[in-house]
Structure formats: C-alpha cells, structure tokens
Amino acid sequence: MKKALNAIGNYFKNIGIAFAKGDIWVKLSAIVMGAGYFARKQIINGIIMLLVEVLFVVMCIGYAAPNLAKFGTLGTVQFEQVFDPLTMTSTVNDYDNSFLILLNSIISLFLILVFILFWIANMKAVYRLQQKKENGEHINNFREDVRSMFNEKFHITLLTLPAIGVILMNILPILVLVAVAFTNYDQQHMPPNALFTWVGWNNFKNLFTNSVTVTFGYSFKKVLVWTLEWAVLATFTTYIGGILLAKFINDKKTKLPKMWRTLFIVAIAVPQFVTLLLVRNFFADNGIVNTFCSSIGLTDFLKSVGLVSSNLTYIPFLTNPGWAKVMIVLINIWVGVPYQMLVATGVLMNIPEDQIESARIDGANPFQIFVKITMPYMLFVTGPSLITDFVKNINNFNVIYLLTQDVYVTSDQLLANSNAKEIDLLVTWLFRLTNEYYNYKMASVIGIIVFIICAAFTLITFTRTIKGDKEEEFQ
Amino acid sequence: MKKKVNLVLRHVFLLLLVVIWLVPILWLFVTSFSGYKGINTSHFFPDTWTLDNYAQLFFRSDSIVQYNRWFMNTLVIAIFTCIISTILVLMVSYTMSKLRFPGRKQLMSFSIILNMFPGVLSMIAVYFTLKTFGLTNSHIGMIIVYSAGAGLGYLICKGFMDTISVSLSEAARLEGASEAKIFWRIIIPLSKPIIVYTVINAFLLPWGDFVFAKLMLNSGVATDWTVAIGLFNMLGKSMINKYFSVFCAGGVIISIPISILFVIMQKFYVEGITGGSVKG
Q: Is A273 touching B (CB cutoff 8 A)?
C-alpha cells in the first residue's frame, strides 16, 4: 500500500520537476505539444504530437462538449414526430437520445482521461530529452525510435491492440452498466421515443424494499440464496464426482482405462446447448422418462410417499420448484463430472507414488490413503481453479436457462411481479429482465451486485495466483 | 474368487455409469432418424426410420429451417474469431511471459480481476454500443463480441510460455536479434501445442455460445442466425411438434466436427490446467 502511494507521489513529483527545471521549450510543450521535440530536432515526433493535440481539440469541440453539456440531465428534448398530410412525409424534431448522450459522455470522459495521461507522459519525455541534450547523450532519430518499438519498447507494440479490444469490450461496457444503474432506464423510458434521467440510489433502494408494488427485495433474497446454494452444490458435486471417477478409471484393476475415458468425453463433446435442450425434453412433463416412470409404477409410488402431489399424473421434473432444483443439480453433475474427471486425471498422474506406497506399507487402507494423501494433494494443486469454478457457477447461465426457459412457470406471485423464478440465478434473472422486460435499470443494479460477489471470491484466488506465482522458477 | 467377482462388479458399475452418460446422446442419434416429426413420448426408439430429417435440413430450407445458412454464418464467424483471438492471446501472453517492464505485475492483477467480470453482465451495454454503430444482426458485430476481449484469456498460454527456457532467447539476443524477431522465430515455433489449444478453443466458442448470439441476433430473420439460435428456435412451444426430429438431426450434424476438435483439444486442456496450477 505504502509502495503504491509512493509510486503515485513520485509520478506527480516528476511532472513538477519537469515544469520547474525545464527550459522554455519544455514549458512551451505544456501548451503546444511537440515543441520540445522540435527544439531537439525530432521533427517527426513533434509533428505527431502536434497532430494528436489538434485531433484532441477537434474531438472536444465537435464530440465531447455537446454531449457532456447534456450529461447532467441526459437530454431534455422529447422525441416528436409530425406527420404532414400534404407531402405524406413525417418530420422528426432534433430530439435528445438519452442513451447516446450517456454512452458518448462516458467515451468522452475516457478519452479526456487518456489525453491527460498522454500529456503528462509527453511532458516527462520532453524533459528527459532536455536532460539528454545537456549531458551530451545520444538523441534517437525517428528511425531509431521506430526500431525501439520492436526492441526495448516491444511490450507497448504488442499490448496496444489487445488493450483497445479489452477497453471496448470490457471496460467501457462496465462503466456504462454502472452509470445505467443510477438512471430510470426501463420500458417506459426507452430512447429514442422517451428520455431517461438520473435517479440517484433509487434502484438500489428498490432492490432491498418489499412493498405491494415493489417485490424486488423478496425476489432478490430468494434468488441470491439459491444462487449461492447452487454454486456450492454444483462446484462440489462435480469436483468430488470427477475425482472419484478419475480414481476409479485410473485404478490398476480397471481394464481399458482409455476407452472408458473416451466414452465419457463423447458425452460432453456434444455442444452444451444441444444436450441441455435435449435433456429438457427427455424430462418433460409428458416426456419419455415420465412415460417410463408411470409404466413401472414409480409415479404412483412417489405419489403415495408424497413427493409428487396427488392431482398430477406425471412427475414434475422441471416444473416444480423442489424437483427442478434437484434435477438441475443432477443434470449439472452429468454435464460437469467428465470435465473434472479430465482435470483430475492429469493431476492424479503427477501424484508422488512413493508417498502412497509407504502409506500402504504402514498399513493404511485405500480410504485412508484417499482422505489423507490424495485429497490434500488434489486440493493443493486444484485449489485456485476450484474457486474459479465457483465463480463460474455463480454465472452458469447455460445450464439454468436452457433447461428451464419456456418450460418453468413460477406460481409465486411475488416472484412473478419482479419477473423472477424460483430456479433463477442472478444472471438468468438479469438476462430475462433485459431481454424480455427491458428493465435495464434493475438489471444493471443486479449486475453490479453479482460483480461485487464475484470480485470478493476472486480476490481470494488472485492473491494466490499472483503472489504465489513462481513463474521464474522454470525459465 | 472374490477378486474376480470384484473385478466384474467394477466393470459392471462403470458400464452402468457410461450408459447413464450416453443415453441422452443415443436418444439424440436415434430420434434424428425418426419418421415422426414431434417428440415420441412412448418409445425410446422411433417407430419408423427415415433420412428425411437430414434431407429437410440440407435441401428444404424454409422460414424456420435455414441450416446451410446457419452453418455458413457460424463457420465464417468462427474462422475470423479464431484468427483474431489467437493473435491477441499470443501477443499478450508473450508480453507477460517473456518481457519485463514496469507495471507488468499490476497489469496482470488488473487483467485477472477484469476477466472475472462475467461477460453476461455487461452485455446490455455491449449490445447498445454495437447497435449505435449498426453492428447488431451482422457477422462483424458477432466477431467483435467474441474476439475483442480475447486478450484477457492469456493465462494458460502464458503458463506454457513460462516453461520455455530463457537461455534460447538470451542466445538470440546476444546475436543481435530484435525482440520482435525472437517472438516470431523462437517463441512462436516452440509454442505450437498451446497455439493449437488456443486456436481450437477460440474456434469452438461461436458454436457453443448461446447468450450473446441470442441477444445480438434479434432480428427474427432466420438467415441471420447461428446454428445455436436456429436450433433453439425449433424447440419453441409452437414449433416443437413439427421440428423436434429435425432439431435432433441438426444436433447430430453439428456435434460431429465439434466432438472431433474437442477430443483433440482435451489433451491440451488437461496439460494447460494442471501445468498452470502446479506452478501456482
């Protein structure tokens, strides 16, 4: 922490020094970027800097200023269309599109921030040039500068393109998402026909309130609990299942281990959306499994036990909350165990054989060996990926959505009021809110909450993967 | 004697598990040859056998079934995604693995946290951004969605490059090779296995993705869709009784190339995961 503060302190101190000790050209660079380069005869660099500055000013006047001016209100001019019966054309007024204003403002702010950082870097570079000149050091010409982009500055060349992609696809959307959470962007406020505006923390309050009209508080609690239950269950069942299966197949007593492994892999090699949609119809209310169960009398047996309510003629595998939750976890075992088996196979092959051997000589039985040697070793090696799996399961959209969409209908009116279902995870709820109900404001709030949960779990992994990273060891 | 019984029991148990795992796949396969278009709810095997479902897929396109178009759409998207993603991933993993520069660790930490932010959450914003540029319902839009952020998924590839001995690049450097040359001539040829993994992984993404395709390709025009969306659409409430067997046929066709690639990849998948974590 102190180190980071020091680094930031130094960063600003260096600009101060550049200003205080720089000559007239360095100081001029603060206003006319590139001046410092011209003075040291780096003409092309100077022209590039000047061009960047001109582009930035044009961007500010033409793009940033008009959008940022409306950023406070997100637009005031309502969309109006006037139909002219004489010419048979309709004219549209010069309306404000709230979403575009929001998006453009965020991009503008981002560009301004980038420019400021660029400007600071420029000041420092110009001052370095002055120092070099004073000390009589060699000053690169343009060709040498270009060459350095493939040598000591190669990391900049390589990272530019990926960074632009990540900024566009990951960082900007996250910023927009955060901003939308503080607006009233929903079906009643859909640009271009309507405006939306800032509402402060209202959406966050809604997520925790329970009233006759707003049932988000009730739904949120239910969905959150099930999301966490699901993530724990899904992660551990597939993890343990995968290890057991791998141990079983790799055991010396098992003949043809490769063949068995391949058979399990075939099951997961088929794309998930195909198998999941198929399984959903396999277990449908009037599906083939139900036909089978009623013909062998299982349906009647379950009725007499009370697991299936007596007015049904089928087992509600995916239509009753309790049954559906159990089935989803079981089907997820079906989907996930072969993956974990693959990973576990790789790890088990590296397990130090001598430890197991000596334990066996000391008289440990197979169960003891498994609990005392195999499991700790597995946990040590796959621990970090276990937490990654947990976070992935919190966001396991495919399994839940493909198994229950169009099939599961909630009977809980309070949940239905906020468009949630018993079997929803936070992400599927969010997806439905956006894709079917256009309730972007609440979806954004849920998105932020999910991010906070995931980030908390990630920080645990991340300290291990980064700090414990012995990457130099193998080089 | 007891040993023999044990041995038989062990294999019977495995066989039982395999049956459980393969029953849905078998059902997919046999239903794709069913003469009845809807779901056969009374028998596991179809009552009549036919190849008509496959014929319908390939030769009788209508407003619902456009399988050839879907396949081409997905293939085009997959090829471009695969090329762009692989290049981005290689660029980032080489930088993080072999180059040393100020701020490297911080950048890595930041990217790991960012990568944890699930794409599903920010997709509303992605959707509207692309819509502003008119890129929804287009191949270019889908390619951007799948490949632009690929640079973040560099960890497994970096883990592999970490194991390439540094003495090779040292030697090249002494002979006056530039960093760019070392990247092209030494690291890339030595990273072949992990490049295969990255390529297949990126190629498979558009075939299996459902969420983004559903959101981005919302025009309702069947010719725009990818295979995943097209097949999902066949199982809608009003459609399922006319198209279920056709869906199964489509599922079988798409599964064949995907399974082959997947089986090739799983070898690298295991090496990547375990190789990466053993070091951690």
A: yes
Handedness of CA B168, B174, B175, B178 (dihedral sign): positive
Nearest to B254 among A271, A291, A443 (CB): A271
Give CA separation, A252 vs A246, A249, A256, A338, A361, in Å: 12, 8, 10, 20, 18
Q: Which residue in A380, A342, A248, A339 sits closest to B270, CA to CA?
A: A342
Interface predicted TM-score (ipTM): 0.84
Instruction: Supply the pLDDT for residue A461.
Output: 66
Backbone angles phi and psi of A83, in degrees to 5: -95, 125
* Cis amide linkage into residue A192, ω under 30° from 0: yes
- Run means of pLDDT, 10 residues per run, chain B, 280 residues: 84 92 91 86 84 88 86 93 93 89 84 76 80 86 90 84 82 85 87 85 87 84 87 85 90 88 73 46
**Domain segments of chain B: what residues?**
29-279
Question: SS in 3 state form for chain B?
Answer: CHHHHHHHHHHHHHHHHHHHHHHHHHHHHHHCCECCCCCCCCCCCCCCECCHHHHHHHHCCCCCCCHHHHHHHHHHHHHHHHHHHHHHHHHHHHHHHHCCCCCHHHHHHHHHHHHHCCHHHHHHHHHHHHHHCCCCCCHHHHHHHHHHHHHHCCHHHHHHHHCCCHHHHHHHHHCCCCHHHHHHHHHHHHCHHHHHHHHHHHHHHHHHCCHHHHHHCCCCCHHHCCHHHHHHHHCCCCCHHHHHHHHHHHHHHHHHHHHHHHHHHHHHHHHHHHHHHHHC
- A-B interface: how many C-beta pairs under 8 angstroms? 287
Note which residues in 153-212 of chain B have CB less than 8 A from chain A: 162-166, 178-181, 183, 207-208, 210-211
State phi, psi for A283 to the nearest 5 degrees.
Answer: -100, 15
pLDDT in tens, B66-81: 899 999 999 999 999 9
Q: What is the pLDDT of residue B279?
A: 38
Q: Which of B178, B189, B192 is nearest to B271 (CA)?
A: B192
Q: Would you say domain A206-283+318-474 falls under CATH 3.30.930.10?
A: no
Q: Which residue of A has its CA nearest to B25?
A: A267
Chain A stretch 145-164, residues whose beta carbon is closer than 8 A to a beta carbon of chain B:
147, 150-152, 154-155, 157-159, 161-163
Nearest neighbour of B129 by CB, restricted to A103, A270, A282 = A103
Mean pLDDT per block of 10 residues along chain A (475 residues) reads 74 79 82 82 86 91 89 84 79 85 91 91 86 83 81 85 88 88 88 86 87 84 93 93 89 84 85 89 86 85 81 85 92 91 80 79 84 79 77 88 86 84 90 86 89 80 55 46
Rounded Cα distance between A376 and A368, Å, is: 12
CATH architecture designation of domain B29-279: Orthogonal Bundle (1.10)
Which one of A270, A397, A454 makes the best mutation probe of the B interface by having the most chain B beta carbons within 10 Å?
A270
- Residues A375, A380, A385, A388: is their CA dihedral positive or negative? positive
Residue B278 confidence (pLDDT): 38
CA distance A199 to A443: 15
Residues B144-167: pLDDT tens digits?
989 988 888 888 888 888 878 788
CB contact B7 to A (< 8 Å):
yes
Domain range annotation of chain A: 2-200, 206-283+318-474
Angle at B273 between CA B272 and CA B278, to 5 degrees: 100
